[in-house]
Amino acid sequence: MSTQWDSSWPKLAEEGERFFLTRYMEERFGIPVSVFHDWVFFKHQQSWWVVRNKSQAPLPRKLKVNMVGLKAFQKVGAFVKPTTRLIQLLGPDAKKSKLDITECELKRLLGKEALDYAASGFEDGYVILCLGCYVLGLGLLIRGKLRSQIPKKDLKFYDLDG
Fold this sequence. Notes:
Layout: E1 11-12, H1 15-29, E2 39-44, E3 47-52, E4 70-76, E5 79-82, H2 84-90, E6 98-100, H3 103-110, E7 115-116, E8 125-131, E9 134-142, E10 145-148
């Protein structure tokens, strides 16, 4: 006997939400919609989670579903922000809005300093921050000022003093 679905559990995202999120990734970062072809999107409150639709394992029938897959997007005010993990996963294949920064710039960003990128040629919005071949996470560019969007919990991984 199956456990009845509970309204507090994640639900399948609507097709319109999936379309919006995948088109955003293509338009902003140049990550093709086709990358998400075999991904299933779930929504829980103000966030979307993804999981690849390749599992052949039978689902447990009496298990309460709390979360599914990788948290991929979060609604922030009127905007949708990709998560650091999603950007780290897909960022190497991004063709647009990708910014290579130096160690010095990273230190300044992590110190909460805004960097001047007025002449960068990037449109306002989220940009992928890279240090060489490493995708670090996102920055937010507003009116020529770049600020880090890397979560505080991830900052411990970027010890640049040693």
